[in-house]
Amino acid sequence: xxxxxxxxxxxxxxxxxxxxxxxxxxxxxxxxxxxxxxxxxxxxxxxxxxxxxxxxxxxxxxxxxxxxxxxxxxxxxxxxxxxxxxxxxxxxxxxxxxxxxxxxxxxxxxxxxxxxxxxxx
Length: 121
Hints:
three-stranded antiparallel sheet, alpha+beta, 7 strands, two-stranded antiparallel sheet, globular, single chain
């Protein structure tokens, strides 16, 4: 069994997020959502109504929480970044926007450090 590289893992997550976003993009065009991330948030909250908040690992850490071991991040789109690349056979660089993946955790996936000590026998 071969180990999957980080690059391959990222590509797989990106493809998963693209697939999830396709229907939501149509809803954005129809005015149902303002952004794809808004639709993703509603989708995740619909799967588990106890979700009230999403933050990055560092944002939760700043609030004094730790991520529960084994928690799987929710995928969202990150802030777009501008890039330029010279296409094959071309001479002039082409500008484009790249949307990275943002990995967020919900309020159900975190705990205060003192809660962690109480749960340990």
